[in-house]
Design brief:
Length: 442
């Protein structure tokens, strides 16, 4: 995790008009000089400058390139770095990287550039994870989430809490040196206020996870209803392509079909499900079981019925779920008796824009766009849960009049779990697990 040798990797996808090869580590500039033919040596270049020249292998020119030079510690990794802009040919990129490896570099591992940035103190762990989220962002909302976290807004709020708790824990531990005098350096009323404030902030962050995770992964939306009510037709209409098989035969959909759609900056993950009915068909029964699972896991449930049907009963949804009733085939009936239902024709598209607007209204993104901290990472949420539990024990210890030593132990545990988010407290195993999910070159 702490190698400082020269690493090289593609920083962009190959096959476009241009591509970028990134190299970092002690001696990276000199390594590039071995294969770069320009007006002057890169080793003599000022930082933050771009140089035109050729990448050469002996008498053979591989490509005309632009080389950007960055000097430690003012670079992404905190090390000397170069970025070589080449033509986007996979062949050229492969040849250039092979040439650099022969001259002293090695191929980077997944996430190794970001590992070095983290270890050099250029960013904390939550910011490093936001880099991967930024790359994976597929909507305005998920981009805003990652952008806020990458700029350090999340980290600043956690670090502020951590500093205050660390100060009070230090005072509590200082009391141990004066145990015979029975003095209190840590004001207990101040400690209680601090614990209450910390608990409220952790609670706010935990509460935001439902929204943050839904936006990051796509808002899970299950389309349920009786067989042949038009669920697959609606899915295809919403995503604008034929993702689900359509047939007049009841029970055609026997497994869940998933598709994504961006609605006004928010990614929705639609799940078309098997029609719910009593059946002896084992395969269809398995599909219905998966329907019930999708219903339980969805943030939004679209219950489809036929306009004019009798005996409508809404499906049961849990806390945090939103039910939207959609009456399909409204072009065949004038009945509008189901309150708050959206009447549509999935086949013609009538009313579907109203449904899209209703779906979008269920996701509040204003605080995300305003730059508020919203938790979207499951690892962070789990750490916050553990911190909250330790905080509850600390509050119980305080109210029970327990010694400063025991109070300090519980507060140190809160510090531990908060530190796990930002990387102030971590292990090589955690780092390897996180950064192994990064792409090569980042």
């Amino acid at each position: 995790m702490v190698d400082n040798d020269i690493i090289v990797a593609p920083a962009t996808a190959m096959g476009g008009a241009i591509a970028v090869i990134r190299m970092s580590g002690e001696g990276a500039v000199e390594c590039c000089d071995k294969v770069f033919a320009g007006r002057s040596r890169l080793a003599d270049a000022a930082p933050y400058t771009v140089h035109y020249g050729r990448i050469v292998d002996g008498d053979r020119t591989l490509d005309d390139v632009l080389v950007s030079v960055f000097r430690a510690p003012h670079s992404y990794t905190g090390e000397d770095s170069v970025e070589i802009s080449i033509h986007g040919s996979k062949y050229i990129a492969s040849e250039v990287m092979s040439l650099l490896v022969r001259n002293g570099a090695r191929m980077a591992r997944a996430g190794e550039f970001s590992v070095r940035a983290f270890l050099a103190g250029k960013m904390d762990l939550s910011q490093a994870e936001a880099v991967a989220d930024m790359i994976a962002a597929d909507s305005r909302a998920s981009h805003a989430l990652a952008s806020t976290q990458m700029r350090g807004g999340y980290s600043r709020s956690l670090q502020s809490l951590r500093r205050q708790l660390l100060d009070i824990a230090s005072l509590l531990e200082l009391e141990l040196d004066f145990s015979e005098e029975e003095v209190e350096f840590a004001d207990r009323s101040h400690l209680e206020n601090l614990l209450n404030h910390t608990g409220a902030e952790i609670g706010r962050l935990m509460e935001s996870f439902a929204t943050g995770n839904a936006i990051k992964e796509g808002v899970a939306t299950a389309i349920v209803g009786a067989p042949n009510v038009g669920k697959s037709t609606l899915l295809n209409r919403l995503v604008g392509e034929d993702r689900a098989m359509i047939s007049d035969i009841a029970g055609t959909t026997r497994d869940t079909v998933e598709a994504h759609c961006n609605i006004d900056g928010v990614q929705f993950r639609f799940v078309d499900t098997a029609g719910i009915r009593t059946t002896d068909d084992r395969l269809e029964q398995m599909g219905i079981e998966r329907t019930m699972k999708a219903l339980r896991e969805a943030r939004i449930v679209i219950q489809m019925i036929e306009a004019g049907c009798s005996g409508f009963e809404p499906v049961a949804v849990g806390d945090g779920q939103t039910l939207i009733v959609v009456a399909n085939k409204a072009d065949r009936s004038d009945d509008r008796s189901v309150n708050d239902a959206i009447y549509i024709s999935a086949k013609s598209g009538d009313g579907v824009d109203e449904l899209r607007a209703r779906l979008r209204s269920t996701v509040d993104t204003e605080r995300i766009y305003a730059g508020e901290t919203v938790v979207s990472n499951a690892r962070h949420f789990a750490a916050l849960q553990r911190a909250s539990e330790a905080l509850t024990r600390a509050m119980t210890a305080l109210h029970s009049g327990l010694s400063g030593e025991l109070l300090s132990e519980e507060i140190r545990e809160v510090l531990q779990h908060i530190g796990e988010i930002t990387g102030d407290v971590t292990s090589d195993d955690i780092l390897k697990n996180i950064f192994s999910k990064f792409c090569i070159g980042k």
